[in-house]
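[09:14] KT: can someone run the structure on this one? pasting the chain below
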Amino acid sequence: MTGLEIPMALWIAGGTMAAASTVSAIGAIRQGQAAKSAADFNAAIAQQNSEIAGGQSIAASEALQRDQARKIGSMTAGYAASGVQMSDGSPADVLGESARMATLDQLNLKYNYDLKKRGYNVEGELSRANGENSRTASYFNAMGSMLQGGSKVAGYFA
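[09:31] RB: done, structure tokens below
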């Protein structure tokens, strides 16, 4: 033995530890990047869902409005066919109340779709925030791996 075997073994062990720490750090960063990409994708889907809900809201509102107009028109025609005067009294009150209820139904429909859109928007915002947090955490994890590896390498040479 020349006496160089032990220092050489320490150098090899230290190099291996440094390489392992580097690979671990790179893996942590890649994991954070992948999590951010997935979160961004989920946020994009949530945004699309919000836009779809907006379109559904318009279509549902228009369908409800047509249905309500048919019902009120049918009521008016029924009163007229029966010879009922529409100018005042119970028939006018009934038609007025029907119109108010139709407006309330429209407002409720819009409110419910607005809540649905808001839910999708919040989901997207949370997804983006989680992606950013995952990416930031990956940098800290990578730094921790490098520091831990450096500490172990230093321990070999102490």
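[09:33] KT: thanks! The first helix runs from residue 5 to 81.
[09:34] RB: yep, looked fine to me
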